[in-house]
Amino acid sequence: MIVIGTTTAWWHDPLINWLRPFVFYNATMVNFGSWSERISGWISPNARFLPEPLLMIGLAYVWMTLGFGMLATRAMRAARARWPQLGVAATFGAGWSAVFVLELPLETLAVRTGLVAYPASIPELTLWAGHTYQVPLYGPALWSAVLTGIGALRFHLDERGFTLVERGIERVTVGARATTLLRTLAVVGFIHVSAVLAYDLPINLAGLYAGPVDPYPTHLRTQQCGPGTPVGCPGPGVPILMKDR
């Protein structure tokens, strides 16, 4: 159920660039462009030039989300075993900490190797601010919260093995197959909503306060913004423009 949820959640990965480019993907990786400009209500211009790496981002929505969710579950179980009176928030924090200490180095490695870049970052909350290899700390922090949410689903099971979002299904009088479908949809819905609210939305709002940054090479910014385009890359005083018609 979780894999179905995370795999289908891949479709809104481009939403982090909804208002303005927050992430650049290296265009030399395997990609067939992006479906961004076909998302209803899309604002950021030149969305057709946004690559969506199949082998890195696509597969990460399967292995990374599930693997890190399992790590969070293990960390929460270990914390609760060590401190039985630990509350819900503190237990979640234990899972988040275990995920974040791995997520931050992975994000840093991806940036340093030129696989991704974060052009719209709040300088005060960013490592190496102003450089093309800057890493906004709130990015890994928020994404770790999403991954920990998946781990929390696996942690908070009732005696029947149901997660929080599946409970109450016994009151629905449908067949076994329909019951499984409804349970799956509940898990899928939780993953989609939590990803949008805990990551996509805050990232877009943070992009409104982007600081200055060195120019990016063309294989990262493609033709989304910068020299050779009518759109300025995110930075102080750079207006947010509607997408091209």
UniProtKB/TrEMBL annotation:
The chain crosses the membrane at residues 54-71, 83-102, 137-157, 178-199. InterPro entries: AveC-like. The keyword Transmembrane helix applies. Keywords: Membrane, Transmembrane, Transmembrane helix. This is Spirocyclase, AveC family. It comes from Pseudonocardia parietis. The lineage of its organism: Bacteria, Bacillati, Actinomycetota, Actinomycetes, Pseudonocardiales.
